[in-house]
Give the backbone structure.
Amino acid sequence: MSDEATNVQGTSRSTRGPAHRLLRGLGRGLLGHGLFLVVLAGAVVIRWIAVRGFPSVLWFGDSNTYLEGALHFEPSPLRPGGYSVFLWLLKPFHSFLVVLAAQHALGVLTGVMVYALVWRAIRAAWPRRGVWLPGLVASLLSVPVLYDAYQIQLEHMLVSDGLFTFLLAAGITAALWKPRRMSWWAGALAGLLISAAAMVRSVGLPMLIVLLVCMLVMRSGWRAMAATVAAAVIPVALYMSWFHAAHGKWAITTTDRIWLYGRTVDFARCDIIKPDPEVAILCRDHLPPVPGTAPAFQALWGDDSGFKKVPGWMYNPKANELAGEFAMAAITKQPGDYARVIVRDTFRSFEWERKPYPRKSTVEEYEFPVGAALRDDHALRAYPYGGKTAQARVVEPYGEWMRDYQDWAFVRGPYLGALMAVGLLGVLVRVRRLGGEVLLPWSIALALLVVPAATADFDYRYVLPAIPFAALAAGLTFARRPRPAVTPPAAAEAASPEPGELPGASEPAEHREKVGQ
């Protein structure tokens, strides 16, 4: 063969090289992530069907408060207003379709973050098992997050839960991306995001404590922890300044003790706690229980609520003060009863059937409705924000498809319990490292189940944010820390270059050329 022909073949081979490597990379990418792309596409399609079937947001009891805060850009004294800020940012679009698209996108992104963290961990732990294994495990564990029908319905409601879960998941993702060598900016990002989540739902505040404790266990370093604390202060300070400007008080809400009071009326006995006469108006052990209604719900919202005897109802700071005195007396004088209701309501999360608690009408609001109706007080707030898109409609057969889907496609309590059990196993097998990276998502999932049961009451809404973190903990359980390769002393000595010699200089030239290629 002539030199000219050889040069032409070499040129052709070098020209095809990059294209060949690109195709090979795409092939490996499809092999590794192809299953998740199918899972992701299916999750998007289901949400598209939900939007087609229900072209406007679904309403809940909290929706009025959130929308009022967005329309007037004012924090509510009842609950944190971070979600109102989210709605206010989308207000220029004057469309609830934009709100739905944004909330469903946040739900999908939460599933993507679970997939990404599990994939990275499995890939690092089992590098010789092929590119398909991490994608398989991570895809399976993203399904509970992406396909739960009640989660999709919650994304369709005008409530804060989807935004809260996304912000919390984003903060945990920042903390776990490189947990053993966390940089200060990763710690700052985690603190900022989780603190922002706490301004959306107050249950996020204990998650900051969980994060810091787990960072200490993971030995993330004092710089990362200091950055986390410093960044977490920013959303809290900004929100409290906003609250002070609106209500003249440095706080996040003025009702935190009222929710705790609702927790304690389930067991409190005034003949034991003996409250002052001023506080005794909140006693309920002399009232008969209301069938089908949880004690906390009746105590806060019922016609016989003691707060109706307080001028200004729950908006009066005096109501919060009285509720706090009652709750603390009940907890300190009946600690066993308090612990009992916490354990009872935590384990409600793992039951097979969804029961009508706190009342039947509340549970029905968590389901895609058969018909569409908008109350007058809802309409007064909805139309200034969303215009024509505020009209409540159900479009068939898409609505029927979603109702049928919701009958079976959700994470039942025992499935959640199984994920938590696998995560707990991951913590226990890493006992020498105090749980390692599994400890953080597992502790977050547990706290999301226990804290509402300890500070408010059980509600099926409060269970859903725990699912992504339980799935993440279960996935990280299978990601063992890879052992460093041990080189035999003889081989290491033979491979080490002589002083002044370049590494590999003693190898045959032909071998060095192959390695270089």
Q: What stands out?
A: Confidence is low (pLDDT under 50) at residues 490-517. The chain has 24 helices and no strands. Residues 63 and 159 are 6 Å apart (CA to CA).
